[in-house]
Amino acid sequence: MGMTTGWTTKLRRFVEARLSPEGELGLHMTVGVALMLVAIVVFHEIAEAVMGMAQITVIDLQVAQWFNQHAVPWITSCLLVVTHLHGVIGAITLATLLGWYLHRKGATYWLFTLVITMPGVMFLNLLLKYIFVRARPSFDAPILQTALSTYSFPSGHTATSTALYGLLGAYLICQTAPGAWGKRIAIALAAFLMAALVGFSRIYLGAHYLSDVLAAMAESYGWLAICIAGVSTLRRRRHIRQTT
Length: 244
Known about the structure:
By secondary structure, the chain is mainly α. The protein contains 9 helices and no strands. It has one domain. The relative contact order is 0.16. InterPro entries: PAP2/HPO (IPR000326), PAP2/HPO_sf (IPR036938). Keywords: Membrane, Transmembrane, Transmembrane helix. It comes from Janthinobacterium violaceinigrum.
């Protein structure tokens, strides 16, 4: 009986520590790990469906062919700007500008998060491309004339933009007043829509399939969640050591 009570007490203390907003391995790390695990599950399900030639691959082809056949010139021009702005050079430029902004604000830990998030998601995406080696969509009359030398799954443009705008959104949310839920939701929605716009541009232009974009967003959100949680843990640990 005493052993059972002791085990229950230890379990209760462990759960309370994981849900504590103040602890160095508390609620922030629990949420980060939970979001990462959800992202891994979503990515796995998409990847398994794609590699198994499940129904999603049929939808991929239908969506790709529909946009290729119904392209509107002015929309194409706008989405070409979006997609080129978020290529490798564009992503590095935008990340540099965000880094400069965070430096000016004195947000050292957020700057460190950016430094590990962006190169990390680029490397992870490239690694996944060579693991799954999925061919790009092909058309008789492609909208995007530039030859694409890398593989299709998952989308690199989408992964980097999701990480970039997700991190910016997280930073801005943390700067808002605790009770300003309307503003926080608006920021989160704007960050999501910016990443979704980049993903849509890749589908519309025929550079990627729908599943490439969905998998890239899941991959990127999972990586971003663990990066933010990890740096937050580092910050809390240093703060605790300095105050003890």
